[in-house]
Amino acid sequence: MSEPLLSTDRLSRWFGGLKAVHEVSLALHRGSLHAVLGPNGAGKSTLLNLLSGDLAATAGTVRFRGKDVTYLGADRRSRMGIGRSYQKTNVFGEFTAFENCRLAAQSRRQRPVHVLSDAGRCKASCEAAERALEAAGLASRGTLVASALSHGEQRQLEIAMVLATGPEVLLLDEPLAGMGVEEARRMVGLLGALAHQHAVLLVEHDMDAVFAVAGVITVMVNGEVLESGTPERIRASPAVREAYLGEHAAAGRAPGGGA
Amino acid sequence: MSRGRLLHLFAIAALAAFPLAGGPFYVELVGKVMILAIFAMSLDLLVGTTGLVSFGHAAYYGIGAYALALLAPRYDAANLWATLPRSILAAALAALVVGALVVRVKGVYFIMVTLAFAQMAYFVFHDTDLGGGSDGLSMSFRPVAQLGPFAVFDVSNPRHVYWFILAAMVAVAAFIRIMLRSPLGRALEGIRSNEHRMRSLGFSVPRYKLASFTIAGGLAGLAGYLLAMQGGFVNPELISWHQSGNALVMVILGGRGRAHAGIVGAFVFVALQELFQSLTTHWQLPFGAAIILLVMLLPGGVLGGVARLEAALAARAARRRGAAGLVEEGGHE
Amino acid sequence: MDIASLLIQVLNGVQYGLLLFLVASGLTLVFGVMGIINLAHGSFYMIGAYMAFTLSSLTGNLFLAIALGIVLSIVLGIALEWAFFARLYRRDHLEQVLLTYGLILVFEELRSLVAGNDVHGVAMPQALSGSISLTSVLSYPVYRLFMSGVCLALAGGLYLLIHRSRIGMMIRAGASNREMVQSLGIDIQLVYRVVFGVGVALAAFAGMIAAPVSSVYPGMGTQVLIICFVVVVIGGIGSVWGALAASLLVGLVDTFGRVLLPNAAGLSVYVVMAVVLLWRPEGLFRRAA
After folding, report:
1. How far apart are CA B145 and CA B165, in angstroms?
2. What per-residue confidence (pLDDT) applies to A256?
3. Which of B112, B256, B287 sits opposite C233 (nearest CB)?
4. pTM (2 d.p.)
5. C83 in contact with B at a CB cutoff of 8 Å?
6. Per-residue pLDDT tens for A16-44?
7. Half-sphere exposure of B181 (CA within 13 A, CB side)
8. Largest pairwise CA distance in chain C
9. DSSP letters of B2-38?
């Protein structure tokens, strides 16, 4: 197993007396999809925010390629290669889907002093945008204004924007949220494909999807890691069943098992 | 040629031809309006494009004007081509310094802090001897537009001054239009649309805001320079917060963020001001009321209202066409 | 400067600072609860001062004038909220700024129409017009001490009200989640209306008690507003103690600045603001994120 791309060591975040995330240590490797599960309030989104730099840590460290990035802001981390998508769709509503991705790609070639050239002529950014739209399944929808897209398409655009920045690490916050069956299936396929080139951290509620694509699963409860391991191990773990999967097991429905 | 482009050319031609028909008072007035248009366009770069509401933009306007007055030698005429770039630079530099301090300030506090810094500039020019105190400064001689052996134009000729101002306004509008298409312009629009996401995508947002603030400051300085050139004097009221407030009114009156909002806003603003001033000495009363009504009823400004009207008319025409199509089979445009 | 003069300037600075604290409290109350930046807040200060002038001329008694003035300003606040500010909740900052800027112009012109543009003095009430001796030669006006005390008491009372009472709890809840409060059956509209009335009254009251000391003149509203902005920027976001500390700092800096550097009288507070911004862009006492 190679060096982890992104790792944390006893990462913690407290809000006053509330321990939203407490001493979480994990490692993400390229080619692997690491899912984080847990009931509401488990601290999954907070963890994601700590990894992306949207929130500052109270204690612990975050390392990217071995380098300590704990005190770096979200924009620095993004430029280093850590990309993040949001649970609540966070696109540029007035721009077209294509422009959303092109602007995202522009972040890799920032030339603020260039005030006279037409940004739309930049081949590199435009090509990156087109590739990202294609990968996310929005190739034909590029000219539509983002706010005019359906909810599922906006979730796809969320992913496309991150892809357009060419990151090494993908932090995805509930990409399947609010999607229909068909859209979700497409997205799961995309996630599986992404795992090959990137290190993916996936926060999700959709259990079927998670067990279909995840190589590693971490279960969080009350801000702490309850258990971490392969899907089989998680499925078999009594502690996890009790804390989280309890209802599913009791109903005789085994989660996952093929998309 | 598109309809929009035709409209632009017509407007420029009409403005250019104006001095041939209008009397000296109106030539000077329209010249002032165009100066305000440049000022308003520069502010719209901050407000409409980047989403930064500055209530202290008059500071850079005033610094551009005072720069000319201070650079001008006491007993001789300054050279326009030497003093103009320096005044713009002075204003841009001031904006850079203030901007560096304020771009990390969030939300409402940004409005407060820009106002506070403008007041600081006001006090510098009002209370100290630097700029002649509360009386301001007047220049003994207007700057000359001498380039080597050529007097490019005659600054003492009001028409020449008017046309120079018109050229500057057109140039600024063109520059801004080009800038909006550039990587910087796109990033600024992105910041206005979703600042958080811009940061998440890897953009150093404060740096872009600073760039916007500096460029806007420099352009405001250009407007101030032109004002000093046209009128021959400067005073601290150029930096008063009324000036900053009025500039914001112009921006919203035109239709913030829309192309040429600053120009439309400046013309309508001055027209309203002249109207109310002709009615009563207490003109700020109807004026203030007009601003309140504007915000409550027409927040998209004139251009916004026009756009809404166009959309409504187009929808009605489409409905008619649809209905006609149903009635006449095979009917076509 | 000897000790007694120093003490006098310190007392003056503290008094000015506490007055600013009162005005700033009204400003941040409205902003914190309703999310509205109200540039006309300074105008209410001016209106208070002019009310003190006209009402005390009419009644001959400043205390009575102040009592009447408070009632009138609450009524004014409620009327304004109903007419204009109720429509500003969903609007963005630019629109709020411009609407309140329009209001400033209207108020200034109305004042010009009603009370003219002259500077007026307001007599101190007999009971408070004495002085306390500090040394054999220097004494300090009782009225200024009274002002400091009242401002401190009012601001303290406001803090207690907002943070320790049921009404305060409703107000704070309404600030963070309007819809939720409404669904709990509390008339949020009424809460906002009252809050705004209180905010106006605070500014007006400050103007009223300041009138005998600072006199009554046209630009006073704008002047106090901008200084309040400096206080809010320095004091940081969301902290009452921050606002108090910043108010005192600004009051002292301004007072000593005028005494020590008369040529750059108005500038000193802005220099301090610039220094604070260099050091901590979120203000001196920002709440830990």
Report:
1. 13
2. 46
3. B112
4. 0.90
5. no
6. 888 899 999 999 999 999 999 988 878 89
7. 12
8. 65
9. -HHHHHHHHHHHHHHHHHHHS-HHHHHHHHHHHHHHH
